[in-house]
Amino acid sequence: MIGTRGHDIGAMTAGRLAEAMASQGFSSVQLVPYRGIPGIGEAPGQISSALAGGIRREFESRGLRIALLGSYFNMMAPEGPELKSAIDRFKEYLRYAPDFGCRLVGTETGSYNSDMSYHPDNHSEKAYQTVLSIFRELLPEAKNHGSIIAVEGLYNYAISTPPRLKRLLDDLDSSNVQVVFDPVNFLHEGNALKSADLVEEAFELFGDRIQVIHAKDFVLEDGAVRTVPLGEGLLDYDHLLSLAAERRPYVDIIIEDLRGDDLEKSRLFLQKKMEAAGMPKLY
Length: 283
What we know:
The chain contains ten helices and ten strands. It is an alpha/beta fold. The longest helix is centred in the middle third of the chain and has 21 residues, at 125-145.
C-alpha cells in the first residue's frame, strides 16, 4: 500500500508514469492530472469519463491503483473568476473520481497570501468560516457521485491544527468528508519537538477518518521545519505506524516531495517499518 505522487516521478503519459512507478516498487499513486500528465490543464472542462477510464486502465494494467486524486486550490483567494474556476475543477474531479477508480479528491485549504505563505489571519474565525462555506458548496457534488472530499491540514493555512480539522469534520457532519493526514504539515517551531504528541492527538480526534497518510520526515533548522527523506529526521515512524496498524491497518501511505535516490531509500525504509509494525500486505 505504498505510493508516491505522480508528479514527483515526472510529467509524462499515464502509461509511461505507471510503468515507471511499477518498476520502482510502488502499488499506488496520488495523481494530480494537471501536474503530472501533459495535455491536461488546470482549468475545469479537461476531464471526461473516457479520459478518466483510460488513465485508470493504464495504472491497473501495471498493478497500480489511484489512491488519491489531487485538485489542490487556495480557498482563501479573493472571490472572483480564479477561485470559481478552482471550485468548478474540484467539483469536476468529484464527478469523475469513480471513473478513475478512486473515490478520494484531496485539497489543502490555503492562505490569504497569494504565494501560499503564512498569514496571521489564516487562523482567524473568518478564515475558518470561509473554508467551511466552500466545503459545504462542494459536499452535494461528492454525495451525488459517491465521492469523498479528502481534507489535508497544514499549520500555515486555515485548517492549521488537528482540533481545527476535527471541528471542520464535525461541522460538515458527513461520511463524504475524510482526511489526508500529514503529520509534518502540522509542525512548526513551537511543537516540532513534540511531534509524537501531535500524532497521538490526531489519531484520537479523527483516526477513524484517515484515508491516506502522507509520509515525509523533518528536521528543525534555524527555527524552521525542513523536510528530509524518511528515516533521516525526527519523526518517530515506529510510533506513527504502530498507531496506523492498530487504527487504520489498510491505509494508503503516500511518500511526498521526494525524488530519485531519496525516494527509493524512503520507500525501502517505509516498507521495513510497516512490516515491523505488523501492517498487513494486500498485494
